């Protein structure tokens, strides 16, 4: 029995297994494997020689339990209490180190990173969902306008038709002035607030549009009679051939502007809601 380690070596050699192969698979330093085969267990630290012997015996197809019993008899010791045996043993350095399996517990930093990613994903989903609800509620009757102090909800301006004008408003004031400019007329609209308008011309198809805040719109050149109908002129500046029509700005209700070429003139019709 005292020669059990020699029997293990002979078993290894008979099966054509090299010490290097065992070291590669078990990660046990070759120096310790050679000590096992020579019976020099004193060269191996006490906490490890049983682990090394078990791994060595299993790799060569021997009876690891019987080898451990023979080791206890050889060393004059008794078997220690049963402990969990690591899957692999790291020994790239002189001191043997227990190597944990690949599926071991994540480090605290990895766990925190995963938790942060999960929290970020949840917040992103909530944010997207809130935007969808926000758009659903305000899409038809309101809109968000970005200002220096942040987004502000404004009632969405609706284009006004002649039928709406007749049904809901009455003419309040009319004024007419001669223009010191001659055709062709070039009209430019500049907004500070959202504004809706329609444009009619004797030779061009009617156009309706909604201008967003802080916007400029050129209506092109025309020589015939034309008509502009605004839902309101709050924050609106109107230029004709570069001349600012500031006297018709900042009206809260619909305003109709009629431009005639002969003689060059402009009529302004202001409407108020029917009470």
Explain this structure:
The protein has 275 residues and is an alpha+beta fold. It folds into two domains: 96 residues, Orthogonal Bundle (434 Repressor (Amino-terminal Domain)); 112 residues, no CATH class. 33% of the residues lie in helices and 30% in strands. It is built from seven helices and 14 strands. A six-stranded antiparallel beta sheet has the order 5-14-13-10-7-8. The protein has a four-stranded antiparallel beta sheet with strand order 9-6-11-12, with no helix packed on it. The longest helix has 31 residues. The chain is rod-shaped and about 130 Å long.
Q: Give start-end ranges of low-pLDDT stretches.
A: 81-95, 97-106
Please summarize the sheet with the most strands: 6 strands, antiparallel
Helix content: 25-40%
Summarize model confidence as the mean pLDDT: 80
Counting DSSP H or I runs of 4 or more residues, the number of helices is 7
Distance between the termini: 117 Å
Helix-strand sequence: HHHHHEEHEEHEEEEEEEEEE
Backbone shape: rod-shaped
Radius of gyration: 46 Å
Class by alpha and beta content: alpha+beta
